[in-house]
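Researcher: Checking consistency across runs. Here is XRE family transcriptional regulator again:
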Amino acid sequence: MAHPIHDRRYRQLAALLMETRKQRGLLQQDLAERLGRPQSFVSKYESGARRIDVIELLDILRALEADPHEFIDRIRNLPLAALPR
């Protein structure tokens, strides 16, 4: 079994967060400043080197001015083939 950090869903979560950041026209540094964190924090979760917990996810979505309900719906609507068996 693959280590949980390598689970496809984490990669998809990171990709959706990166996509949302880029849609907002923000650099990693911009988002990091909004979060009061180093740029490496954003880089690590976007690259999959670090997982984020639910509190961090909510903080990130707030900094991105993204609706958490809509974001979670996007994840829930991913094709079943994208989910591990």
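Researcher: Does this match what you'd expect to see?
Model: One thing to look at in this run: The longest helix spans residues 8-23.
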